[in-house]
Amino acid sequence: MVERKRKLYLISLDAVGSKDLTILKQLPNFKRFFKEAVVCDSVESVYPSLTYPAHTTMVTGKYPIHHGIVNNTRIQPKYEKPDWCSKRKWIKGTTLYDELIQRGYTVAALLWPVTGDSKIQYNLPEIHPNRFWENQVVTTLLQGSARYILGLVPFLKVLDGKTKQPGLDNFVHLSAMHTIQKYNPDVCMVHYLDVDSNRHAHGMYGEKMDEAFARMDKRFGELLTLIEEKNKDEEAIIWVFGDHYQKDTHTIVYPNKILEQKGYLTTVKDRIKDYKVLAKHCDGACYLYLNEKEKSDKKHRERMEQEIIQLFRNLSEDSAYGIARVIPKEEVIKLKADGECICMLEAKEGYYFLDECEVLTRRVNDEKLHKMKATHGYLPTDPNYETFFAVKGSGIKKGARVEHATLADEGVTLAHLMGVDLGTVDGRVMDEMCLE
What we know:
The protein is an alpha/beta fold. Helix content is 32%, strand content 20%. Helix 9 runs antiparallel to helix 10 (207-230). The mean pLDDT is 95.
């Protein structure tokens, strides 16, 4: 365990994958950083490969089955929009920032997922208010650091009244620059979403994505220059990473409509009223859950589980349903996803899942509420679906090579370099790039 105080800058580039390194290495600021950094171009995300489970793995060194954030949103079928897993209390066990704060470090987090109501001193949490009585500003102030957030109000002008890109990342970026300049925290965790948002809206590559990468490079260059200026005489680590990648899509599948047709759930005006079995989407993957009332008798539960697995295995033989695989609970547990499910569905290339019950399938261009021309959630071991990290600074071997890593390895190595103990973890310390 390292026994020295280092500063840490953890920069998340949502939905940036290994294949994007070809682009990033041509952009001036990333090109400069990569020349001095250890770069791993084969990083395995978590399953399902979603933002909230992935970012939680980065700060715990654990997989979703152990840290508890197994999806972006909660199971609330009667709500039109389920709550996001935004609060720290839903993470099982400790986190990197908890341990560092306990040691006297100051921590800043800007739009970092699952940090609502945490002990982070400078916290602008990522919050999605979904209830008619909730307000974005009020909810963010209540779950974050109110006085600190109020100090960021002057930067809201770049939003132009909308939390859309590139305004959102421009706001986060200006806020991060201000935070480093004014408060100089020991740890700064920044989450940029420009690439993720634009891929959902426009697809994997094209003119809009070129513009998003150019904006990302400009922001990164400004942030990098400021970090280097503030840490001339201090030991610091700059760690840049992607949480997952994405895939282009053309068709949406609605498993709950299948369950309704087979009598496993009931609806009123296309809203779920009650269920024996429920589908909970993760975009490129989907959980299937048994209602607690169906679990009281072991034989009944086992029969129901086998029925559902067989139902979807039969459907997977029809290409129209877009099901690549039905993954039974035993395999789900091995993949470190939610072991409480019956099974998981993995979507075929070009497909993703949603929870609504209006139709069985729909072309992406015909979807209104959740149109995504590219998305994530798929098995992290799929070919050409890796993400990356790049790191330089104190405790890092210059010129080291990391052939392969997982997000859990990144979390454990971060804790090692910062000298804290995360307890029982799923990852390893990447000794091949650490000086100590």
